[in-house]
Amino acid sequence: MEKFELKAQRLVALCMLGVVLFNYPMLALFNVAATVFGIPVLYAYIFTAWSLLIAGMAYVVETKS
Question: Rounded to two decimals, what is the model's pTM?
Answer without folding.
Answer: 0.89
